[in-house]
């Protein structure tokens, strides 16, 4: 049984929710990186303004979040297991889910807007942002694709690609050295 805590207020009525994956062990980082990176990611997700809500999937660590949280007991199976937990926690009226990584603090809200706009055009089963020809996040999954998510995640699903070259990639923080200076509490650049 999942433990779900709801704290997000609806800002839109698009039928699209965000699922933020923050379940990993952060073994390469050395501590729960979600505690440092999750809120900046959530700020950027909310700034898009085209989502009905946000679900954060936790797993290895207990994380406080300013959004609905769901604990995935099967997080060790891979990102697909965590994603399936988040999708299962979405309300029945959700028709699409924007998948975002909890360790991508440079995500541009406009990238979310673009994948949602492309999905609304003709409802493909998946839409993914690309940066310099490389498929990254966000990824939008139509409800009919939710049952197809394998354990290794949505990256293996075919997707319509949307260029976000002008926005820059969302980032992928694996090590403490990868944290942008603006988010480093140990940096002398922070007041």
Would you spell out the secondary-structure blueprint of this structure?
Layout: E1 4-5, E2 16-22, H1 34-47, E3 53-58, E4 68-71, H2 79-88, E5 96-101, H3 109-122, E6 126-131, E7 134-142, E8 160-163
Parallel strand pairs: 2-3, 2-5, 3-4, 6-8
Antiparallel strand pairs: 1-4, 5-7, 6-7
CATH class: Alpha Beta
Distance from N terminus to C terminus (CA atoms, Å) equals: 43 Å
> How would you sum up the major sheet?
8 strands, mixed
- Unreliable spans: 1-11
Coarse morphology: globular
- Look at the helices and sheets and give the structural class: alpha/beta
The CATH architecture assignment turns out to be Alpha-Beta Complex
Radius of gyration: 15 Å
State the main characteristics.
191 residues; alpha/beta; Spore Coat Polysaccharide Biosynthesis Protein SpsA, Chain A; 8-stranded mixed beta sheet; disordered N terminus
Describe the structure.
- By secondary structure, this protein is an alpha/beta fold.
- It is 20% helix and 23% strand.
- It has a single domain, classed as Alpha-Beta Complex (Spore Coat Polysaccharide Biosynthesis Protein SpsA, Chain A), CATH 3.90.550.
- It is built from 3 helices and 8 strands.
- β6 and β7 form a beta hairpin.
How would you briefly describe this protein structure?
Helices cover 20% and strands 23% of the residues. It is globular, with a radius of gyration of 15 Å.
